[in-house]
Amino acid sequence: MENPPLSGNTPTRRAVLVINCGSSSVKFALIDADSEQPLITGLVECLGSTDAALVWKRDSVKITKALPDANLVESFSEVIAVLPKEVEVLAIGHRVVHGG
Question: What is the CATH number of domain 13-96?
């Protein structure tokens, strides 16, 4: 499910994308650069399993999309697809956890 732009193709807001990658999950938040409030938050859980799913919340609406057997790359494509198109991403912060 893709979020269409609210006002044409021109970005109307600026934000920072924050990503936290673990061995079986990806958490993310898109934070408005001016208000410092989350525009969208979510996670992909159970990566690599038949139970893998993307769950996100935008405008107080929670949506779940099944992603059976999705890997990290596939899950990132799905995360990018749900980000609001009216937002210009100014920076990306990330944390990657390695097992061991």
Answer: 3.30.420.40
